[in-house]
Design goal:
Layout (H helix, E strand, L loop, with lengths): L1 H19 L11 E7 L6 E7 L2 E6 L5 E10 L2 E9 L6 H7 L3 E8 L3 E10 L2 E11 L2
Antiparallel strand pairs: 1-2, 1-8, 2-3, 3-4, 4-5, 5-6, 6-7, 7-8
Length: 137
């Protein structure tokens, strides 16, 4: 009888924990703010400022600036359109890329960083990546 009672207590505890576990991320804290990440190719630090529908990235080593338009699809995913590079007029291929959205989905939000998956389909290829973006203090 004691084993059965312990099983019932364990089972009810498990049900309670499962019911109170909140799986969804609170993506509201990444819609606006100051962040940074490290370039996968050069490992340069890139400063990122997001203002809901505008994102500005600055490579801290080269000074290059990338401006993008953000279109939120839901709380934790958005499309990003590259608008322009600082001091440069968009070339023909850059203009093509600017019309194709980069699909970004927030996968995890921690206290100091968040993880996102990105995907773009261009020239009959799908390019996917996972990035870690840190909250700037």
């Amino acid at each position: 009888m004691t084993t059965f009672r312990n099983f019932i207590i364990f089972f009810l505890s498990f049900i309670f924990l499962f019911a109170t576990y909140k799986k969804s991320n609170d993506c509201s804290k990444i819609k606006n703010g100051h962040f940074y990440y490290y370039s996968k190719i050069s490992r340069d630090k890139v400063d990122l400022n997001r203002f809901d529908s505008i994102q500005i990235e600055k490579n801290m080593e080269t000074g290059d600036i990338l401006n993008s338009k953000i279109v939120w699809k839901n709380d934790c995913s958005f499309e990003m359109f590259i608008n322009s590079l600082s001091k440069n007029k968009l070339e023909k291929i850059d203009s093509l890329i600017a019309t194709i959205p980069l699909l970004v989905e927030i996968k995890f939000i921690g206290n100091e960083f968040y993880i996102s998956d990105s995907k773009i389909e261009i020239l009959n290829k799908t390019i996917e990546s996972r990035d870690t973006i840190y909250f700037a203090n």
